[in-house]
Amino acid sequence: MAEKGKQAVKRLRVWSAGCSTGEEPYTLAISMLEESEHLLKGWNVEIIATDLNDRSLETAKAGVYGEYALRSTSEYFRQKYFSPSDDNKLQVRPEVKKLITFSRLNLQDDSKVLFMKGMDLVFCCNVLIYFDASSKSRVISHFFSNLNFGGYFFLGISESLMKLNDQFHLIHFPGAIAYWKPSLKSGKP
Amino acid sequence: MTATLESEIAQRVNRIEATPAIPAVLLPLLELLKAPADQVDVKEVVRLVSYDNTMTAQCLRVAGSPLFGLARSPESIKGAVISLGLRRVQTILLTCCLGQAFPAQKWVLDPTVFWRHSLGCALVCRKFSEKLAAADQDKAYMAGLLHDIGFLVNCLVFPKEFAVAVECAFEEQIPLDEAERTHLGFTHCETGRALAQKWHLSDEIVQVIAHHHDPDLAGQPLVALVHLSDLLCRVRGLGYGYYERHKVDLAYDPAWAILLKEHRDLASVDLVRFTFELDEAVGEIQELVSTVFGKETAQA
Fold this sequence. Notes:
The structure holds two protein chains of two kinds. Chain A is of the alpha/beta class. Chain A is 29% helix and 28% strand. Chain A has helices spanning 2-5, 23-34, 54-62, 75-81, 94-97, 110-113, 133-146, and strands spanning 11-17, 44-51, 64-65, 82-84, 90-92, 100-104, 119-124, 147-155, 169-173, 176-180. A seven-stranded mixed β-sheet of chain A has the order 6-2-1-7-8-10-9. Chain A has a three-stranded antiparallel β-sheet with strand order 3-5-4. In chain B, helix 1 (3-14) packs across helix 12 and helix 7 packs antiparallel against helix 8 (137-146). Chain A binds chain B through residues 157-162, 169-175, 177, 180, 187-189, and chain B through 231-232, 234-237, 239, 243-252, 270-273, 275-276.
C-alpha cells in the first residue's frame, strides 16, 4: 500500500475471480470500507466480481444472507454493513454494494479475460482446483499479465502455484500468503 | 562492535555461571553431543540423565510427542534410545536441559513465547532438512533450538536495556534485532555467540547463533537454513508474541541461494504446502512447550 500510495492517482482495482454467491467480494468491500478512514483515505476503490454461473451471480447481486453465511460475522459488522431482510436474513447495505461490479465471465475464455487489465489485487480462491494443469497454467499467466507491477494475487487455503508458474514471488505476510508480481524497478516486495 | 563492548559482554556472560538453575548435566551433555554419533558413550548419557528424575520423566514425555514420532512414551531413556536412535534422544535431552537452564523470574520476554519460537524453529529446521536429502536433521534441530539463546543472555545480564528494546519492538511492530541494534548497540547474536563460546559449542552452532540474521556473512548452509526457518516461524504464529509488520520473500532471500547451492533439491520444496504442514503442527508445538517449559519446570 505504501508503495502504491506514492502514485498520483489513488485508485485500487480488485478482482474477485470466481466470486460464487458473493461472500468474498462483499467481505473485501467491507474490509476496504473499514480502512477508508485510515490506510485507504482518499482512495478510489473498485471491486470487480466475476463468476461463470448465472444463478450464483443473481444471489451475489441480491446480497441477502442467512445465519450460515454470516456465522463468523461479528455483531459490529452486522450492525454497520447490513440491514434486516425477510425471514431473519440480512441484506448488504447499498454503500457496500456500490463498490462492486458483478459480471459473468468464464476464466477459460481467453479473449474476455484479456480485458480485465490493470488489477492491483486478484483473488481466486478454490476455483482453480476444478481446472486441469494446462488450463490452470494458462489462467494463472493471464492473472499475472492482468496485474499491475507490484500487485498481489491470492489463492485459497492450501492451494499452491508450485510447478504452475515461476514468475510470481511467493510472499509470506503474518498469517497470510500471497503471490507478488515484481515491480519494474526493485526486485523487492 | 567495539573491543570494549565485546569485553563487557564477555564479562557479563561469565557471570551467568553463578545462575543456580543450570542443570549439572547440561555442559557435560553438550560435550558428549560433540562426538560423532557412533562414538558417543550411550551408558554415560543414560547415567548423566538418570541423576535428575524430573528431567528423565520430562524427556520420556517429550519422546512420546507426535512431533518426535513415537505413539507412546518409552519407559526408559534406554528404551527411547532404542526406538528413536541416540541422536534424536540427544536432541530431546538438550531440549529438556535448556528448559531448566534459565530462571523464569528474570525474563523480559515471556518464557513460554520464547521457547515456543525456539522449539518451533528447531522443528521447522528439522522438517525443512527432511526435504533435503543430504541435510543432517538432528544437527538442524539443535541449531534451530539454540539460535536465539542470546535473548536469554540479554534477559539475564542486560535486563534493563533489553526491556527498552523489547518494548520498542512491540510498539513499533519491528523485528527484535532491529530494536536491539537501536537501543543496545548490539544484538542477541553477539551475546549468544559469547555464551556459545563459553559453553564450547561446535563451531557450526556458534556460526548459526552469531549470523542467523545475516546469513550471507557466514555463507554456510546450516546458517541459511536456520535463517529461513526463523523467518517462516515469525510469519506463522511462532514469533515473539507480538505482531511484527513484515513480509518475507523466502525464495528470493540471499539465504535461499546459499542453501540451494548445497542442496539442489530445495528447488522442488513446495513452500505453500510446507507452510500449511507447519500450521498443522503449531498446536502440537504449543503442547510440547508446556510439557518441557511449563510452569512447574520453570520453578523447579
